[in-house]
Amino acid sequence: MTIEQHKNVDSVEANGLQSLQEPFIQQGKGAVGACKDVESNTTVQNGSIGMVLLSTFIAVCGSFSFGTCVGYSAPTQAAIREDLNLSLAEFSMFGSLVTIGAMLGAITSGPITDFIGRKGAMRMSTGFCLTGWLAVFFSEDSYTLDMGRFFTGYGIGVISFVVPVYIAEIAPKNLRGGLATTNQLMIVIGSSVSFLIGSVLSWRQLALAGLVPCISLLIGLWFIPESPRWLAKVGLKNDFQVALRRLRGKDVDISQEADEILDYIETLQSLPKTKLLDLFQFKHVRSVVIGVGLMVCQQSVGINGIGFYTAETFVAAGLSSGKIGTIAYACVQVPFTVVGAILMDKSGRRPLIMKAFEFLMMPCKTSGTFLGCFITGIAFFLKDQSLLLGWVPILAVAGVLIYIAAFSIGMGPVPWVIMSEIFPIHMKGTAGSLVVLVNWLGAWVVSYTFNFLMSWSSPCTLLLYAGFSLLTILFVAKLVPETKGKTLEEIQACINS
Question: Which UniProt keywords are given for this protein, alphabetically ordered (predicted)?
Answer without folding.
Answer: Membrane, Sugar transport, Transmembrane, Transmembrane helix, Transport
